[in-house]
Design brief:
Blueprint lengths: L3 E3 L4 E3 L3 E6 L12 E3 L3 E6 L1 E4 L3 E4 L3 E13 L8 E8 L2 E2 L5 E4 L6 E12 L4 E8 L4 E3 L14 E7 L2
Antiparallel strand pairs: 1-2, 3-5, 3-15, 4-13, 6-7, 7-13, 8-12, 8-14, 8-15, 9-10, 9-11, 9-13
Length: 163
Amino acid sequence: MALSYNLALGAITDTPCGSWYSTSTFTSTATNTEYILGVNNQTFARDITVVDGSKFTVSNTGLYNFQFSAQVHNTGGGGNSAAIEIWLKKNGASVQHTGTRVSVTSNHPYVVASWNFFEAMAVGDYLELAFDVNHAGINIVPNTAIAPGSDIPSLIVTMNQVG
């Protein structure tokens, strides 16, 4: 797909892209268990669809930038070793060397995990986010705003084709 710059808009047009978020709580009930993150709201999307609530599926071959942020909460316990690991999956398989471990100690119970990946995709390929924990009290949660702020989604995902 050819990308074109629209001078009047000051933006690249016709580029596959999208933005989604979740207002759901992702609860970890067991340690060392894979959980899949998903979304339940779409801000906009062009040529990228979400299948089964979690599979970010492309309709154009190319290089994609996949970004997310997740609000992680430790509901108590676990001490200084409480942690969550988040990684990327492509077409159902874990993508090696994409995982990151984030400490979520009981002294600092809210942490935002946020990073991005570049991934070559073919038509019909999909990406997902997975996580596991070493303490069952660690969850990914939304929150209501402290006035005058905005409500806080548990997960925000954006994806766009870059090549």
